[in-house]
Design goal:
It comes from Segniliparus rugosus (strain ATCC BAA-974 / DSM 45345 / CCUG 50838 / CIP 108380 / JCM 13579 / CDC 945). The chain is mainly α. The chain contains twelve helices and no strands. 40% of the residues are buried. The chain binds fe (ii) ion (2 copies). Residues 83, 150, 153, 186, 189 line the site of one fe (ii) ion (FE2).
């Protein structure tokens, strides 16, 4: 078994935290800068995060019996803890979003549950430790998908935390706090699933294939998801087609979109490693900003 690539980082730190959404100021329906499609997009992403992050955790935990490196073991524990807390906090936000009329939460949760049941059946019938060859590729594919998703969230996180224009989009204070914290921790653990994949000798061709398909489809999937969300639950918005069209143009012209596809494609290169992109100065800056002596989120920690 090959040795894991040691990340420059960082053991991801699990922070118990809570966000008082809608207090004291109620949330606007279009809580992302008044932009209709962008608010729907963030709402749908928030619906997908908790079951998605649970799937990420399962895909990594499945290989925990093979991880011998103490540093990687510790990073895996941090990754699992962080993703579990992300799910909890996004579910809190999701309750608020459902109250505000957004739909899609149940679909995400139900799909996540079905997926989990299917995976649990597979793992119970063919425990990975005893039957490593059974469903070998399927299991590697789930881990490679997690490593790919982690690259995607790291790309978005870096943009969110480094572009003032991206910070300006987050006009709801508690959603801003949540997304900044989530983005920060995504950067802290961005290479953990990737290093587990390498440590257990996951095939590079499979990881590259999954990363390339994801990079080619992710933007259209997000756009379609946002539009379906508007069509499915927002009659008020549908009476304002010109506003929606202007908002779509605003999104595509936004600096956060510049070079996005190119950055997403980076993970599709053979030999790519998430730490090839050095985000430690950004992490240092935001660590001070959020959790330093006068950190903006100190009063949110439990
Ligand atoms: Fe997360
Ligand atoms: Fe993550």
């Amino acid at each position: 078994m090959s040795a894991p690539t040691l990340s420059k980082a960082l053991y991801p730190k699990v922070r118990r935290i809570v966000f008082p959404f809608g207090q004291p100021v109620p949330m606007d329906k279009y809580f992302v800068d008044g932009n209709i499609p962008l608010s729907h997009l963030i709402a749908q992403m928030s619906f997908v995060f908790p079951p998605g992050e649970e799937a990420f955790i399962r895909s990594v935990r499945r290989y925990s019996h093979l991880i011998t490196d103490p540093g990687l073991k510790k990073r895996v524990a941090g990754f699992i803890g962080q993703e579990a807390v992300h799910g909890l906090q996004h579910r809190d936000l999701n309750d608020k979003l459902v109250e505000m009329g957004y739909r899609g939460w149940e679909l995400s949760e139900n799909l996540g549950k079905k997926n989990e049941e299917r995976e649990n059946r597979m793992d119970a019938q063919w425990p990975p430790a005893q039957y490593p060859e059974k469903y070998r590729l399927a299991r590697f594919a789930m881990l490679a998908a997690t490593a790919t998703a982690e690259h995607g969230t790291a790309v978005l996180a870096e943009r969110l935390l480094s572009l003032p224009e991206a910070q300006a989009l987050m006009t709801d204070p508690e959603v801003k706090n949540l997304l900044n914290w989530h983005a920060f921790e995504e950067l802290e653990h961005k290479s953990v699933a990737f290093d587990v994949y390498r440590a257990v000798d996951g095939p590079e061709w499979l990881r590259v294939a999954i990363a390339r398909v994801t990079a080619a489809t992710i933007v259209p999937v997000l756009v379609i998801g946002s539009l379906i969300s508007i069509l499915g639950c927002d009659r008020g918005a549908l009476r304002r087609p010109i506003k929606i069209a202007k908002d779509v143009v605003q999104v595509f012209k936004h600096p956060i979109m510049k070079g996005l596809r190119k950055d997403m494609k980076l993970a599709g290169r053979r030999g790519f490693h998430p730490d090839d992109i050095d985000t430690t100065p950004l992490l240092d800056k935001w660590n001070a900003e959020l959790f330093g002596d006068n950190g903006a989120l100190l009063d949110h920690l439990k």
